[in-house]
Amino acid sequence: MKIMIVDDHDGMRRMLRSIVSIGSSEGTEIIECADGEEALIQYAAHQPDMVLMDIQLKAMNGFEVTERIHAIDSQAKIIFVTSHDTPMYRMKARDMRAKGFISKDNLAELDQLLHQP
Fold first, then answer.
1. Neighbouring C-beta atoms of residue 2, cutoff 10 Å
2. Cβ neighbours of residue 108 under 8 Å, at least 6 residues apart?
3. Cα angle for residues 34, 116, 45 (degrees, 5° grid)
4. How many whole angstroms separate alpha carbon 24 and alpha carbon 27?
5. Three-state helix/strand/coil letters over the chain
6. How many domains would you assign to the chain?
7. What is the domain extent for residue 103?
8. At 29, which CATH number?
9. pLDDT surpasses 80 at 23
10. What's the rounded mean pLDDT across residues 61-76?
11. For the segment 91-114, what is each residue's pLDDT rounded down to a tens digit?
């Protein structure tokens, strides 16, 4: 399984990597990206099975990155992981066919979402 983590904070990427690594089988490949442009390049290069996407990124927000990824791969599985847990953002994520939406204050849900079919 390949999982791409898109977050502009090193500490959050490390935390998400740790959560993913603990809950995943051996051989899981993790790709980290610090911004949207890097995410688009890495998505095209690696075609990950799942993307953990922050919403607030520099230059291009996570919703914009998701739209561009969906233009490349309409079946892309994206879970938004954000500190901006608002009804408006949740609705937008649902409209974008996100696999999930998790608040950074409640990362315990992440493992369950990653392993749902």
1. 14
2. none
3. 35
4. 8
5. CEEEEECCCHHHHHHHHHHHHHHCCCCCEEEEECCHHHHHHHHHHHCCCEEEECCCCCCCCHHHHHHHHHHHCCCCCEEEEECCCCHHHHHHHHHCCCCEEEEHHHCCHHHHHHCCC
6. 1
7. 2-114
8. 3.40.50.2300
9. no
10. 96
11. 999 999 999 999 999 888 888 887
The confidence score (pLDDT) of residue 117 equals: 65
Virtual torsion, Cα 103, 108, 111, 112, nearest 10 deg? -90
User: Alpha-carbon torsion 33, 34, 40, 45, what sign?
Assistant: negative
Structure tokens given for 45: 């290069």
Query: Distance between CA atoms of 42 and 65, rounded to whole angstroms?
Result: 12
Residue 109: Cβ within 10 Å count:
14
User: 52: which 2 tokens?
Assistant: 């953990």
pTM here is 0.94
Integer Cα distance of 107 and 10 in angstroms: 16
